[in-house]
Amino acid sequence: MSIEKAGYIFEIKLDTGVNVNRCYQCGKCSAGCAINENMDYPPSVVMRMLQTNNVENYNRILRSESIWMCVSCQNCLTRCPMQIDIPRLMDSLREKALKKNIVNKKSGKIISFHRAFLDSIKYTGRLYEIGLIVGYKLRTFNLLQDLTVAPGMFLKGKLPLIPEIIKDKKRLVSVFSKAKQNSRK
C-alpha cells in the first residue's frame, strides 16, 4: 500500500507499532529531551507533523537533523503518559530517510557513525571499537584526527586488537537478513 493511498501514519504503525495519533501534545517528551534545543524539530513537533498525515511534513521530517540527533535515550518514552515509543519511531524515520536518500546534509557525520556502528555489530555481533573507529574515519575522511589518543587507549586495554565474536553467528546473520527484508517492504 502506498503512502499516498493510506497515508504514512498507517505505514509507520505497520513498521513500528507506534500509533502517532495517540499523542495529545502534552510536550513532556520535548521537555525531557536533553538535545531538544539543538534539534530543528523537537520530539513533540515531530509527532504533530506526523499527525497531519501530510506528505510534505513527512518529507520535512525525513530531511531534518532531528531524527539523526535523537540518541534513543528513552527519556521521552519514560515521561510520555501514553507510552509512545518515540525512539523507535525516530529509528524507523532514519531508516526511511536512508532508503529514500533524502537525508540532511548537516547530518553526514552522524550518518557515517550510524552506518559504522551497525557494520561493527553486523560483522562481530558486538561493538568492536577499532572496527567502529576505522569505519567512521574512512567514511568521514578524517583519518588523522584523534590519532594521538589511540596509543594511550591501547596501553590501557581500552582498544582490543582482536574483536570478540559472538558464538551464534548464524543467528546474527539471520537477524540482519530479516531486517533487510523488512526494510524492502
Walk me through this protein's architecture:
By secondary structure, the chain is an all-alpha fold. It has 2 domains: 3-101, Orthogonal Bundle (Fumarate Reductase Iron-sulfur Protein, Chain B, domain 2); 107-184, no CATH class. The chain has 12 helices and no strands. Helix 9 (108-124) packs antiparallel against helix 10. The longest helix is centred in the middle third of the chain and has 17 residues, at 108-124. The termini are close together. The model has no long low-confidence stretch (mean pLDDT 88). Keywords: 4Fe-4S, Iron, Iron-sulfur, Metal-binding, Oxidoreductase. Its EC number is 1.8.98.1. Residues 14-44 form the 4Fe-4S ferredoxin-type domain.
Question: What structural class do helix, strand and pairing data support?
Answer: mainly alpha
Q: Total number of helical segments?
A: 12
Strand fraction: under 5%
Estimate the global geometry from the Cα principal axes: globular
CATH architectural label of the largest domain? Orthogonal Bundle
**Helix proportion:** 55-70%
By CATH's scheme, which homologous superfamily of the largest domain applies?
Answer: Alpha-helical ferredoxin
Q: Note the quaternary state here.
A: single chain
Q: Could you give the order of the helices and strands? A: HHHHHHHHHHHH
**CATH class annotation of the largest domain:** Mainly Alpha
Structural Rg: 19 Å
Number of domains: 2
CATH structural fold name of the largest domain: Fumarate Reductase Iron-sulfur Protein, Chain B, domain 2
Distance between the termini: 10 Å
The largest pleated sheet is described as: none
Low-pLDDT parts are none
Number of beta strands: 0
Organism: termite gut metagenome
InterPro entries: 4Fe4S_Fe-S-bd, 4Fe4S_Fe_S_CS, HdrC_iron-sulfur_subunit, Helical_ferredxn
GO molecular function: 4 iron, 4 sulfur cluster binding; CoB--CoM heterodisulfide reductase activity; metal ion binding
Pfam families: Fer4_8 (PF13183)
